[in-house]
Structures are given as structure tokens and as C-alpha cells.
Amino acid sequence: MAVPGPYSGVSTLAFVARASAFTFGVVYGSIKLSYLKAKSKSHKKEEVKGHH
Questions:
Q1: Rounded to whole angstroms, how far apart are CA atoms 10 and 27?
Q2: pLDDT, tens digit (0-9, with 9 covering 90-100), for 4-48
Q3: CA torsion, points 35, 41, 44, 46, in degrees to nearest 10?
Q4: What residues have CB less than 8 Å from 44, skipping those under 6 apart?
Q5: Containing H/E element for 36?
Q6: What is the Cα–Cα distance from 24 to 30, expressed in whole angstroms?
């Protein structure tokens, strides 16, 4: 466990910054994942069209 400094309470700013960074990461990740899935789907469709 870390040694508590002169101020051992939880900083509201630090908490908000951490929470917003986490939320941004989750939102960004889900958007990126859905984009990649859609891109992969359309790419597969093009491959099937190209073979026939």
C-alpha cells in the first residue's frame, strides 16, 4: 500500500479526470469495434462478389 502524503483524501478533480478518461476509452473502443466489424463485413461481401 502507498504511503499517504500530506493530503490523503481523494481528489475530486483526479477522480473526475479518471472517470471521464475511462468513459471516453469505453465509448471510443465500442465505436472503433463496431466500425471495424462493419468494415470487415463489407470487405467479405466484396470478396464473395469478386469470386463469382
A1: 25
A2: 555 556 688 888 999 999 999 999 999 999 999 988 887 777 767
A3: -80
A4: none
A5: helix 12-51
A6: 10
